[in-house]
Amino acid sequence: MNSIEENLSFKHQHLLGIKELSDKDVSKILDLSERYIEINREQQKKHDVLRGRTLILLFFENSTRTRTSFELAGKRMGADTINISVSSSAIKKGETLIDTAMTLNAMHPDLLVMRHPNAGAVNLLSHHIQGAVLNAGDGAHEHPTQALLDALTIRRHKGKIKDLIITICGDVMHSRVARSNLLLLKLMGAEVRLVSPPTLTPTGIETLGTKVYHNMEDGLKDADVIMMLRLQSERMQGSFVPSTREYFRFWGLDANKLASAKDDAMIMHPGPMNRGIEIDSEVADDITRSVILEQVEFGVAVRQACMELLASNLPPKGDKNGI
Questions:
Q1: pLDDT at 319 (0 to 100)
Q2: What share of the chain is helix, strand, coil (3-state, %, to 5)?
């Protein structure tokens, strides 16, 4: 099987953020992801869309879900998948990011997936790589494939994204997931609300077309979708909340706060979850409303779709003049 989609017209060389995408781009990715969900549920999951292509995973931050998801996606598509351990690489010996990029480029990668703690690092690397670069998260800037898989999950459950009320709750200031989701969901016509403590609300975030609340019940009123965010203590310098106990009391999702949303409101979380801090176990494990495990499943399909679309713009396999 060479491709599961006949019309692969996709004008982008890289996937660095949501801002560069149009609503038609998003719909194309989600539609192709739907096909991959079905394939991934079959007994025979492997095919050769990326056979002969090289996929490099370069993660400067620890990751379980995203790295494993990209690795599994690449292997199921037939790519030669390579994980580079940053902790034992030349990067830890003082090599600059540009030197690393030039070194990797000399190896002729077709697709390179990168996560980095600094915003803009993935964009910088993309200027020195001839293949396609995918952003797996750069600082508190963007995490485009997470937003895409979240949108896919919402669309499959609600049948649409347009006109839904979607509330994103938690540590918005340090969350690249919140930023990418805000951009994508607004692009697709949803009403997006943010709920966070004043100390964890970015200054001027309202200019992106969202309403900001500091009270959970107000922000959750009549919400169709609730997306909880992890309290990212590792990114905080200083104290942003009095204590995790107080944080859960005011901004953690439990049954009482959930009652403010619609009766069929779905519950999402990008993971990893801090139970008892931003979400109560009873709510997280509610099989009638929580779609957290489906988000993990759909993440593989979305990353397969993104890689196939980007690979469609690469020089043909075996082209000696290509990368």
A1: 56
A2: 40, 15, 45
Question: In what side-by-side order are the strands of the sheet with 54-59?
Answer: 80-85, 54-59, 111-116, 132-138
Of 149, 96, 100, residue with least CA distance to 129: 100
Digit-coded pLDDT (tens) for 143-176: 999 999 999 999 999 999 999 999 999 999 999 9
**Using alpha carbons only, what angle is made at residue 233 by residues 152 and 294, rounded to the nearest 5 degrees?**
20
State the Cα–Cα distance between residues 44 and 171, nearest whole angstrom.
40
- In degrees rounded to 5, what are phi and psi of residue 254? -135, 180
Alpha helix stretches (DSSP H) within 6-140: 23-40, 65-76, 97-105, 121-126
pTM, two decimals, is 0.93
**If DSSP codes are grouped into helix, strand and coil, which group holds residue 228?**
strand
Token reading at 173: 């200031």
Q: Under DSSP, is residue 101 helix (H, G, I), strand (E, B) or coil?
A: helix
In this structure, the number of other CB atoms found within 10 A of the CB of residue 320 comes to: 5
- Which tens digits make up the pLDDT trace of 272-281? 999 999 999 9
* Lowest mean per-residue pLDDT among 42-51, 213-222, 224-233, 293-302: 224-233
